[in-house]
Amino acid sequence: MNIEICAENINAAIEAQNAGADRIELCFDLSVGGISPTMEEMIEAKSRLNITTNVLLRPRGGDFVFSAREIDEIMTGIETCGQFGFSGVVIGALNSDGTVNMPVCRQMVEFARKLSLSVTFHRAIDCTSNIFSALEDVISLGVDRVLTSGGSEGAFQGADTIARMVKQASGRTIIMAGAGVTPDNVVQLIEKTSVTEVHGSRIAIIRALRCHEQK
Predict the structure, then answer these.
(1) Which of 23, 187, 197, 200 could be disulfide-bonded to 181 (CB atoms 3.0-4.6 Å)?
(2) What torsion do the CA atoms of 6, 24, 36, 119 make, to the nearest 10 degrees?
């Protein structure tokens, strides 16, 4: 089981690394669901972390319908992540009708691949008009994983949908459960969904899951 911790600053990232996280999602301002980290945080992360680190590239909170300027900002972020040698990027964009913006997302994914970056499609999928159709679109882009709460406020509430997404993906991409993952629900969430990766901000989920695995 892989545990990804979303860290909104370098101190949180180092704490997660020391606690035994498998991967860090570097971001900023979790109060709005996470946005792109600052350049200063990225520079410090590269100098102080020795763990697989993916960078969230989201210009702002709110919806995932981005302007041309915001898309350019994401593309610049992808280039910076490649230059810095990060492991991957976390991206996504939607149309105003709630479908995946395929031309823009394909451009992002192809550019990331040229820079040898892994790609996670973030929780924009939870805001789509049909999460199962959107999953097929995202899989066709060739992403490595999809972060989702199953379209619900939290992953535990969306566990039935996440389980369906895991079956639908059928190994074509990784479905990673995230949002509201706690030490109290992480084991049951995994059992209900069959996910192989979980995502959360609470370091204690690492200890809870590792203790369970040792039983």
Answers:
(1) 200
(2) -110
Q: How far apart are CA 165 and CA 163, in angstroms?
A: 5
pLDDT value for 210? 86
CA distance linking residue 121 with residue 34, whole number of Å: 14
- The answer to whether 34 and 5 have CB atoms below 8 angstroms apart is no
What interhelical angle do 10-19 and 39-48 show, nearest 10?
Answer: 30
CATH 3.40.50.2300 fits 2-214, yes or no: no
Average pLDDT, the chain: 96
Residue ranges of the domains in the chain? 2-214
Q: Which residues of the chain have pLDDT under 50?
A: none
pLDDT above 90 coverage of the chain, percent: 97
User: Which residues, including other chains, have CB under 8 Å from residue 25's CB and lie 6 or more apart?
Assistant: 4, 5, 6, 7, 34, 53, 54, 55, 56, 90, 120, 199
